[in-house]
């Protein structure tokens, strides 16, 4: 999961640019978080690790969601 805390392979500007035309809404991002969280739980990650990954994703929300 390099773009979620490991050595960064994408800058914030790159993440913003690549999602601009994808037009992801706040609701769409909420759905992504919900599904990703479920998948991590099903993969039996520790609850604290799931929470840490979700929190990292949330830091990228403003770059990904189109306002
Ligand atoms: C934490 C949230 C997210 C991160 C860190 C993230 C990161 C990235 C990165 C780094 C790329 C570029 C990959 C590459 O060029 O090889 C990418 C592309 C893409 N992402 Fe995300 N993403 C996130 C959320 C989402 C969500 C929620 C969606 C849609 C529901 C999405 C849809 C896409 C699409 C369609 C592309 C390809 C765009 C293109 O090439 O034109 N992403 N994402």
Q: Which sequence of SSEs, written as H and E, runs from N to C?
A: HHH
> Could you describe the largest sheet, including whether it forms a barrel?
none
How many helices in DSSP terms?
A: 3
The total beta strand count reads 0
Low-confidence stretches: none
Topology:
Blueprint (H helix, E strand, L loop, with lengths): L11 H8 L6 H17 L4 H18 L3
The structure holds protoporphyrin IX containing FE.
The site of protoporphyrin IX containing FE (HEM) has 13 residues, from α1, α2 and α3.
Polypeptide structure, described:
The chain has helices at 12-19, 26-42, 47-64. It is mainly alpha-helical. The protein has one domain. It is globular and about 35 Å long.
Which characteristics define this entry?
single chain; 67 residues; mainly alpha; globular; binds protoporphyrin IX containing FE
Sum this structure up briefly.
The chain has 67 residues and is an all-alpha fold. 64% of the residues lie in helices and 0% in strands.
């Amino acid at each position: 999961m390099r773009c979620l805390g490991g050595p960064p392979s994408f800058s914030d500007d790159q993440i913003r640019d690549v999602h601009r035309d994808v037009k992801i809404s706040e609701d769409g991002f909420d759905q992504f978080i919900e599904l990703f969280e479920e998948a991590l739980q099903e993969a039996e990650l520790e609850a604290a690790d799931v929470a840490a990954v979700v929190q990292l994703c949330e830091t990228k929300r403003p770059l990904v969601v189109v306002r």
